[in-house]
Amino acid sequence: MNKISAKLPFFEKIGYSLGDTASNLFWQTFSMFLLFFYTDIFGISAAAAGTMFLVTRIWDTVNDPLMGILADRTNTRWGKFRPYLLWLAIPFGVIGVLTFITPDFSDSGKIIYAYITYSLMMMIYTAINIPYSALMGVMSPNSLERTSLSSFRFVAAFGGGLIVQGTALKLVKVTGGGNQAVGWQWTMTIFAILAAALFLTTFATTKERVRPPKTQITSLRNDLKDLFGNIPWLMLFAIGIFLLTFVSIRNGSIMYYFKYYVGDQTINLFGKSYSYDKDVLASAFMVFGSVANIVGVLSTRFISQLFGKRRAFIILMFLTAVLTAIFYLISNNAIITMFVIQVLISLVMGPLSPMIWAMYTDTADYSEWKTGRRAT
């Protein structure tokens, strides 16, 4: 593919990015509200919910690679990865709604229902998101174009998070009429319809251009050998675990942080006092963070070209660690300081996700260069 044809059309970058908006309508809801939903609304103990999350993640360690193997071996007139967006968009939405339904079961019945629906949700999430992520690696052979595409993707991803953070709690109140369980069901129905429509839009607006060499003989043994011999991928694998762990813990603790530590607050601004309840503060805290994330993402290409992706990533991770340590020292009534540090952390973290995903796609190029085989 020549240099000109390697440049992706603007509308295609937008179309691809909307798939991560779809994903984050659910992912952000899960990471920020699901544990709180299970413990404070559905009535499952924190220990049971935490154990369930651990069990499903253990299964993911098997399920995710299996999905990658399956997607790499899929061949249709639409390509390898795009078909999964078409096939799974609607099931993704349906199971997402079922995850937030609260049947009147016994304590053990609730736990069983949660295990079944959440496990199905994570499986369908894997089945649509592994191909979606891999799609970025075959839309263009140009590394800078993929970095740009990754930036578009994560602007849209944080945009999806912004929708969730800014509207979820309000939608729950409005649609539930005071009944949080009903409110969450209707809120997730709205998000599910939007997510399905966005995934279908991504399917309709993207193309797969990079294909394995025609002489390549597909072999699971060779794929795994190439994978575990790919040192850059192994390093990113370890970094990705720590990064996602950090993000999951931080996002999952926000509702508890404001409910049990910050509480309702009165803030003095310019000589006037303003009273805010904890839900409003939590929602605003998340929204401020997402807006800062988006600003950070928009700087990704500039920072990558200035420092190089690897060096920039290291610098930004160091700054994130320092700012997070400072956040730990903030008292519960220092609301302004709390929000300022949140904005700084989110701004610095903004480029991290697009950088690491762009580097993941680069490792596929590295593997093809080293072995002559491609397994995206």
Q: Top keywords for this entry?
A:
376 residues, mainly alpha, two-stranded antiparallel sheet, 14 helices, 2 strands, 80% helix, globular
How would you describe this structure to a colleague?
The protein is mainly α. 80% of the residues lie in helices and 3% in strands. It is built from 14 helices and 2 strands; from the N terminus they run H-H-H-H-H-H-H-H-H-E-E-H-H-H-H-H. The protein has helices spanning 3-6, 10-42, 46-72, 82-99, 107-139, 143-176, 180-205, 220-228, 231-262, 278-298, 300-307, 309-327, 335-349, 352-371, and strands at residues 265-269, 272-276. The chain has a two-stranded antiparallel ribbon. A hairpin with a 2-residue loop joins strand 1 (265-269) and strand 2. Helix 5 packs across helix 14. 40% of the residues are buried. The mean pLDDT is 88.
